[in-house]
Structures are given as C-alpha cells and as structure tokens.
Amino acid sequence: MNAVSQLHPDSREGALRAWWMPFTHNRYFKAAPRLIASAKGTYFTLADGRRVFDCLSGLWCSPLGHSHPRIVEAVKAQLDTLDYAPSFQMGHEPAFRLATRIVELAGRPEDRVFFTNSGSEAVDTALKIAVAYHRARGDASRTRIIGRERGYHGVGMGGISVGGMVANRKMFAPLMIPGVDHLPHTWNPAEMAYSRGQPSWGAHLADELERLVALHDASTIAAVIVEPMSGSGGVLVPPRGYLDRLREICTKHGILLIFDEVITGFGRLGTPFGADFFGVKPDLTTFAKAVNNATVPLGGVIARDDIYQAFMTGPAHMIEFFHGYTYSAHPLAIAAAHATLDVMAEEKLIARAAELSPVLEQAVHSLKGEPHVTDIRNIGLAAAIELAPIAGQPGLRAIRVFEKALDDGFMLRFSGEMIAIAPPFVSSAADVAAIVEGIRRALRAVPV
Ligand code: PXG
To answer: What is the pLDDT of residue 6?
Structure first.
C-alpha cells in the first residue's frame, strides 16, 4: 500500500483519491478542488456556498437550466412506472414516440433513430452504420472514413480515430481504426480572425476532399464525418459555402456525409439542428447532450430511411444490425427527453436561442483589444475567445482566466488556449452581457 492509499477518507486528500477524473488535471484539481454541490436554473452552487453562472450550459448539454421542474417531474414519474426496460427484442412505447418526435423535429420524418447513451457511442454507431451500409449493398471495399483535423467525436476508438485532436490520439495510436484520413481544419487566423458568424474565406478547403478521393479512390471511402460547427475545437465556424461543397463532393462520389451534431443538435445554433442552420442535409446525424437537457445520459443517430432499408434484408426473424447497448433507450433518459422537447416547444426556446445569438455576438466581440485576446469566434448561442499563450506554459493562460472568472461568479469552459461560452437558452440578454463583462474583468486581472 502506498502512502496515499492509507489516507483517511475523511481527510480531503483521502476523500478525493479514488475518482480518476475525466479530462481533468487530477493533481492540480485535487490540490485545490472545485466542488459543485447543487444546481438550479442557470446557476451552480459550489460546495462553499457560492453561486456561479453556468456559462457553458453544463458541458454544452443543459440549455434549459438545471433541475427544470418539468423534467424532474417526468423522470420521477417514470421511476415509479418503469425504471428500466431491455431494448433487445423488447421495446417500450415512449422510446418509439421519442424517435418519431426527433425525426419530425429534424424535418426528416421518414428517417430512423438508433438510441445510444452518449455522444461517443453515437459516433461509433454512425461509423459502424456507414461501413455496414456499404457492405450490405455489396460495396464492401468502402471502409475508409474521413474525419477532420481539430474535430472532436468523443473518445471511443472510432471517435478518436476520426477525431483530430492530437492529445486525444497520440497515446492510443496502435489501437485506433485503420484506414482513416483527415481533412484540414478550417481555422485560419490570418484570413478570418474576429469574423462574426461564418467567415467568408475558406469554402475551397472542402475541395481537399477531392484530393483525398484522388488519393484513396472513392470506392474505398465509406463516409466523411464533421461537426457542422466544431465545439470542443474552440467554436470553429465553417466558412460560408464550405459544408455545401462537402455535401456536393460526397454526393458525387457516393460517400455518406455524417454530421456530428452532439453539440449543435437541439437548438444551439437557434435552429433544431446545425443542418437546418447551414441548409445542408447529411445522411447520418449524431446527437446527445441537449436532447434531454443532460438529465440522464442519452444519445443517438438519425439515419436516412434508405440507409435503414439497406439493412432490412434476409429472413425477418433475424437481427439486421448487430449493435446496441444495455441502456439503449433507457426509460429515464427517454422520459427526460420528452419533457425537454415539450418545454423547448412550449417556451419556444430554440427561437429564444436565435434571438440571443446577436446579443452574444455583439457582446463577445466587444472583448477585442482586451489583454491576451487574439481571436473571437461566434455562431448561434456559442462563442470562443482565443488567448495568447504564456511563454513556456501552454494552457495556463486560459486556466488563470477560468479561475478568476469562477471567483467572480462565472463558470466558463477552458481548453487549450481558449475560453468557450454557450449560455443556457433560458438566459436573459442581461445574463449574456454579464458573462462577457465577467470575462473582461478576468482578462484584465490575469497578469501579462
Ligand atoms: N461529438 C461531439 C461533436 C462532441 O462535442 C462527443 C461527440 C462525445 O460525446 P460524449 O457524450 O461521449 O462526451 C462530443 C462531446 C467541451 C466538451 O467543453 C465537449 C464535449 C464533451 C465534454 C466537453 O468542449 N463534447
């Protein structure tokens, strides 16, 4: 036994020892833990009693605010009725009804939904559907997947293979799926720094897909996967015309286009999906997070009807797609999603996100010229502020800004050299202005 494991669990070090925290600087955190005790509406209450504004809607996932009474009520009622139901060879009615609501909201009523429990599982599911679809149609050489640099598609082996974040990939390279290539990312500060909304430069970057087709041949490529807007990469906004161009090239070569809408799905851009915002139709769409306000883990894939139909061959009593999760369509998650979609519709919260978008754009771009700021990007109800790194200490600048803002009552998201915000849709214009002023104070308080 080492010294640490002998610590008394009542001591702070002992109490924090066992949980190996995700995407967290564990040693730094445990030396000065930031503990959340409760949440209500747009605020978290920390263990020391301070209330902080939730500037990223959780991790992009709670746009209705926390402990929404309608969602709480729905989940509690579901617990009393059906706590769990197997989804293999059995089904429960609310899950079918939710799938119908999702394809209707997406404006694709003929399409199909496969439920998962997270965005990562949704991505791996979409990749498997894409490869199996081509095989089912007799096009078995189409196995290659094209991702994009700086893309984030969760942390499954498939997701990190197509993802484009080096830190998430480098330790696992031998296990990642082979036969993957990447498009270049679309952020070019020399051409687009401080763009408001979509940059006008960069549609031609989609033509890189033609180069990859020329290199690998279309007959080897199953799908292209991109986030319509890269959230984790730092709100990287697609240049005007870029996604349309990707769509055209995919269609021309029989390649499926997967939009990873884990962040953009369910209203973040002020439209039901990013596909609606950009006016580009993907073949497969992944979602998670906001679908049920993150009350219970839920994700999924929307598949074009003919993709589903391609699997519906062979004897009717045989399983068509050997894939699924114990918790696929978990009743509590489904109940939370119904309540979330009810509230979104009744309170017109997606339109509310659209109304707040210009307020956020105006406010966040007023940070241009503040200390350390090198770029500001925004789209829908999301924005990122890129900071100049501290020499020799990558990442520390954004941590410092995050810490100052937290002390001041604003919980931001930091990642690399960047601060991201994605306020809850139920925020007021005054809340959005207050977040930005909080960031301004934090930027000014962090030493050069
Ligand atoms: N795809 C996309 C586009 C995502 O943004 C995932 C897949 C994976 O989802 P799960 O549910 O497996 O985590 C994501 C997740 C951040 C942040 O601060 C973003 C995510 C998760 C946590 C933090 O940018 N995105």
So the answer is: 53
Two tokens at 132? Answer: 């199996």
Are the folds of 34-67+348-445 and 71-346 the same?
no
Which residue puts its alpha carbon closest to atom 15 of ligand 1?
154
Q: Which atom of ligand 1 is nearest to the CA of 299?
A: 11
Domain limits, the chain = 34-67+348-445, 71-346
CA distance 256 to 307: 10
Integer CA distances (angstroms), 195 to 39, 143, 201, 372, in order: 34, 37, 10, 18
Residue 49 pLDDT grade (very low, low, confident, very high; cuts 50, 70, 90): very high
Cβ of 262 less than 6 Å from ligand 1: yes
∠ at Cα 410 (277, 419), nearest 5°?
A: 55
Is the pTM here over 0.90, yes or no? yes
Q: Are 177 and 163 in contact (CB under 8 A)?
A: no
Note the pLDDT tens digit of each residue in 361-408. 999 999 999 999 999 999 999 999 999 999 999 999 999 999 999 999
pLDDT in tens, 255-297: 999 999 999 999 999 999 999 999 999 999 999 999 999 999 9
**Topology of the domain covering 71-346:** Aspartate Aminotransferase; domain 2 (3.40.640)
Which CATH number applies to 34-67+348-445? 3.90.1150.10
Q: Would the CB of 413 count as within 6 Å of ligand 1?
A: yes
